[in-house]
Amino acid sequence: MTLSQKTVLAVFRPLLNICFSWKAEGRDNVPSTGPLVLVANHVHVLDPIFVAFSLPRWITFVAKEELFHSLFLRLWLRWAGSLPLQRDGRVREKQRILESARQALEEGLILGMFPEGGRSHDGKLRKGKPGSAVIASKTDVPVLPVGVIGTDKIHGMSWLWKRPPVVVKIGKPFKLPPTNNKISRSQMQSLTTQLMGEIAALLPPEYQGAYEKQED
User: Integer distance in angstroms from the first to the last C-alpha of the chain?
Assistant: First the structure.
């Protein structure tokens, strides 16, 4: 984590506490060093901010390529070290993001991903896309599941005085079965289901959506 990144976290974390009734649970589950593939549910545009301020380490997020079209966002994302992802890209694009992710993980960074591939408009967990699971399996790096609860209540301007409660639950790292070979469609589905199930386990039943039956 650079000095400027530490400064941003130190300055803006109190501001987040003023605007929201916000807390992070499970911070002790985050290893102090070493690579991680962080995966979380995604409901609101502020989710990456809540997740970033909940961890004691900096997160290198994978962001959709469209966000880099805005000058301000492009400068911010590049400063933050975010990796652009072209959704529904060709094989060459998938190989590029895999290599970029592998490089970041080899540097011991936390790679942040939202495996649903976009925001859920009803707050419920959607079917996951295989990218996160494939990266974690091919790099043999631990996965850190995170559940974000309450950001679906942030809408309009009423949140300014209502201070809706937001909870970021950080689960324990786990590993997916490693593979160096080409992953079949059925393997992708199995790996993705396991990964999404770990996220679902951190959410209340009404948020688990497509993975509600994953709860023990």
Answer: 37
Count the alpha carbons within 13 Å of 59 in the hemisphere toward its beta carbon. 25
Count CA atoms within 13 Å of residue 176 on its CB side: 33
DSSP 64-93: EGGGGGSHHHHHHHHHHT-EEE-TT--HHH
Could you tell me which of 140, 204, 206, 149 has the C-alpha nearest to residue 173? 140
User: Of all helices (H) and strands (E), which one includes residue 138?
Assistant: helix 131-139
**Beta strand ranges found along the chain (DSSP E):** 21-25, 36-40, 59-64, 83-85, 110-113, 143-149, 165-170
Computed on alpha carbons and rounded to an integer, the radius of gyration of the chain in Å comes to 17
- Do the beta carbons of residue 176 and residue 189 sit within 8 Å? no
Enter the pTM of the model: 0.87
Distances (CA, A) of 107 to 6, 119, 136: 18, 29, 15
Q: Provide φ and ψ at 209, rounded to 5°.
A: 50, -120
pLDDT tens readout for residues 50-77: 999 999 899 988 876 666 556 566 666 6
* DSSP helix/strand/coil, 172: coil
* Contact partners, residue 102, CB within 8 Å, separation at least 6: 135, 138, 139
Cα 95–chain centre separation: 20
Domains and CATH numbers, the chain: 3-62+95-204 (3.40.1130.10)
